[in-house]
Specification:
- There is one protein chain.
- With about 375 residues, the chain is of the alpha+beta class.
- Helix 4 packs across helix 8, helix 5 crosses helix 8 and helix 10 packs across helix 11.
- The strands form 4 sheets. The protein has a 4-stranded mixed beta sheet with strand order 4-3-5-12. Strands 6-11-7-10 form a 4-stranded mixed beta sheet.
- It has one domain.
- The chain has 14 helices and 12 strands.
Length: about 375
């Protein structure tokens, strides 16, 4: 077994969770090797691929980074994670070497100050990084963006998301009951990675609307709750789809100043587009429809304070601006289903960040406004600015 974090790169409290340099263990067979890795605490509970030195070296040779290059930085505790450690976790997760650029871009996005990785990694709210992949890389690595895109069956989806989670676990110490204090958590804490089905979308893809050229491959990461289903009957009109989606995003339990991913199924997308509804128009509809009165939010325990008379009419949307509803298309052709992934916080602890796989394309892009611009207790005037 081999290779992990060079001395001094992580806190000693967490170093034991990372495969250490120069570990040589004689193990009889593969099954015993898996059990040995599990016993070291390197797993998320599922079996892992033993990071044999020859395998790690082969991955490093295929990777676009120097083994000591820092790929992930967590500023609160000053933890830096080098490429060698990322590669070890990629092997553990079951990745192929061709997946490494996507993993690297996801970690670069999560290193951006506006993602504030320490907050979702430690929150009781149970947030997990949801990874959305755009551009040609989807096809190159056979990443699923169609049927069952949130479910099992695609190695790239399963192992890229799992690798990112294992890095959080093994290098940052995001262990249940340790740094990770999620009250309940969700399946995204194993893996949450999928592609946008750009070819089925009537709208420009997410990465283009976030400022990147269409031919560029990117990764967008948002710390999120699990998905809320948006389902209609077959043959639903655009108005029916909008009404159902609007009701979902008004959900009192997930109402906050945060962003969200709105993954529209191809059938719903076609229905909306046929009615002349653009992605921007959909964002505006959802933003306006998500409003709850301050009295409702206080009665539901979403915000604190006594209810004043004016709170019965003052409203607050589920977002800061309409663009906080990040719209994309994904899923199979059949079925009237879409999904909403809301950020987990009552405030704006973290925002979506997009990183190109090729850094020469341009800088990483955060979201505007960033997390420091939470509106507090908004009213109609403030919320509609």
């Amino acid at each position: 077994m081999s290779d992990g974090t060079p001395a001094g790169r992580t806190s000693p409290d967490y170093a034991r969770r990372v495969p250490a340099d120069d570990v040589e263990v004689e193990i009889a067979d593969t099954a015993d090797a898996i059990e040995w890795c599990m016993a070291q605490g390197w797993s998320d509970g599922l079996p892992v691929v033993p990071p044999e030195r020859a395998v790690v070296d082969r991955f490093l040779a295929a990777a676009p980074w120097d083994p000591d290059a820092v790929l992930f930085h967590e500023p609160v505790r000053g933890i830096e994670v080098p490429a060698r450690t990322v590669v070890v976790n990629a092997v553990l997760a079951g990745c192929r070497p061709s997946y490494l650029p996507v993993v690297g871009a996801a970690l670069a996005a999560m290193s951006h100050p506006d993602f504030r990785v320490h907050i979702p990694a430690s929150s009781t709210g149970g947030a997990a990084p949801v990874i959305v992949v755009n551009g040609p890389i989807r096809h190159e690595i056979e990443l699923n963006d169609g049927v069952n895109l949130f479910g099992p069956g695609a190695r790239a989806n399963a192992t890229i998301g799992r690798c990112v989670r294992l890095v959080l676990r093994n290098a940052l110490g995001a262990l249940p009951g340790g740094l990770d204090m999620a009250t309940q958590g969700w399946f995204g804490k194993y893996t949450a990675c999928f592609g946008e089905r750009e070819e089925a979308s009537p709208w420009p893809p997410l990465h283009v609307r976030r400022g990147f050229p269409a031919h560029t491959s990117t990764v967008t990461v948002l710390a999120s709750e699990s998905a809320h289903n948006i389902h209609t009957c077959g043959g639903a009109t655009a108005d029916m789809v909008l009404r159902t989606a609007a009701d979902v995003v008004r959900c009192l339990g997930s109402h906050s100043d945060g962003q969200s991913l709105v993954v529209i199924g191809p059938e719903h997308a076609a229905t909306l587009a046929a009615a002349g509804i653009t992605a921007e128009a959909l964002q505006r509809v959802l933003f306006d429809a998500s409003r709850r009165t301050l009295a409702e939010l206080k009665r539901g325990g979403r915000i604190e304070g006594a209810i004043a008379a004016e709170d019965e009419t003052r409203t607050r949307p589920r977002a800061k601006v309409a663009d906080d509803f990040l719209v994309l298309v994904g899923g199979g052709d059949a079925g009237c289903s879409s999904a909403w992934f809301p950020s987990w916080s009552r405030g704006r602890g973290s925002v979506a960040v997009t990183a190109p796989l090729d850094p020469s394309v341009g800088p990483i892009r955060s979201s505007v406004p960033g997390p420091a611009s939470a509106p507090g207790l908004g009213d109609d005037t403030e919320a509609r600015r």
